[in-house]
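Need residues for this backbone.
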């Protein structure tokens, strides 16, 4: 019996600006996200006809409203399709607002050997100048490249790892960059030019831990160091039953004395705490004062990391 060739790309739609509609073609901000079905998106990109494709709609939402149930459905769908021998990889259309969080979540939960590429758009599908179709086509070429592995993001011709990608501009079509300037590759006229260490060398291990359908997720919140940070918000969150806190410190994760003490008190009471930085790049070094560093993770990715750590530590996990 002849074995199946792994050349099928599965496209999973979640909504976002890439699937958005505006009443006027010149309106790039007054649109409703997630209006166009993924199959219609695919049909609107002529170059995709050269690939063997399969499309499924997972959600149709604005990614500012991304939630845990959708993350769970998406992770299970990605894992299911990657397990099919004929599937080369998975392409996910997503909104830009929380794309970096979803990418890191999928990498940490699944750590897939096959490639998973998220793409998005800063202009709705009704805009005069579209960026979504080219991004989808570039993502398909990336999925077919033999060097591709793991979860990546492909936007504006640039390829980023799930660990480094972050949105840095509110409006431009090249709204993303890699933390500390890291770019894995560039897609140029259908060719992938690798610039950094092959993705296959990434060491992140998948947790494989998700709560059951309808099950409870830990509550992890973000707090920020700033002038006159007195720690009151930490005490209020602790009283409200928070499970974990990520603090975005200044500089090298530095904290006001009052905020640091409030976090140490919360940690002593059983709240898990990670210390990140509100800076756009650079790691947070351990300072020996008792609050664990999130390393080089941005605050929002440190929150995903802490969520997964708490899930893994839960009874019966």
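Answer:
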């Amino acid at each position: 019996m002849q074995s199946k060739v792994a050349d099928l790309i599965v496209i999973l739609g979640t909504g976002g600006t890439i699937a958005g509609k505006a009443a006027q073609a010149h309106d790039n901000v007054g649109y409703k996200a997630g209006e166009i079905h993924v199959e219609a998106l695919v049909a609107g990109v002529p170059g995709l006809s050269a690939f063997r494709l399969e499309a499924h709609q997972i959600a149709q939402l604005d990614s500012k409203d991304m939630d845990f149930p959708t993350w769970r459905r998406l992770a299970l769908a990605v894992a299911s399709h990657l397990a099919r021998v004929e599937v080369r990889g998975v392409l996910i259309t997503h909104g830009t607002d929380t794309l970096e969080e979803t990418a890191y979540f999928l990498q940490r939960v699944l750590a897939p050997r096959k490639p998973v590429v998220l793409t998005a758009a800063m202009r709705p599908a009704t805009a005069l100048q579209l960026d979504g179709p080219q991004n989808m086509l570039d993502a398909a070429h990336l999925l077919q490249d033999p060097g591709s592995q793991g979860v990546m993001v492909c936007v504006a011709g640039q390829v980023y790892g799930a660990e480094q990608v972050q949105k840095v501009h509110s409006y431009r079509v090249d709204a993303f960059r890699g933390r500390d300037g890291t770019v894995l590759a560039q897609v140029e006229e259908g060719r992938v030019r690798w610039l950094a260490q092959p993705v296959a060398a990434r060491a992140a291990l998948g947790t494989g831990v998700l709560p059951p359908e309808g099950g409870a997720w830990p509550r992890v919140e973000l707090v920020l160091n700033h002038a006159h940070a007195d720690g009151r918000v930490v005490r209020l969150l602790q009283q409200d039953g928070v499970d974990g806190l990520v603090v975005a410190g200044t500089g090298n994760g530095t904290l006001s004395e009052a905020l640091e003490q409030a976090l140490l008190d919360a940690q002593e009471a059983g709240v898990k705490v990670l210390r990140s930085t509100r800076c756009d790049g650079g790691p947070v070094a351990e300072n020996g004062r008792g609050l664990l560093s999130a390393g080089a993770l941005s605050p929002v990715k440190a929150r995903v990391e802490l969520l997964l750590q708490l899930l893994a530590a839960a009874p019966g996990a």
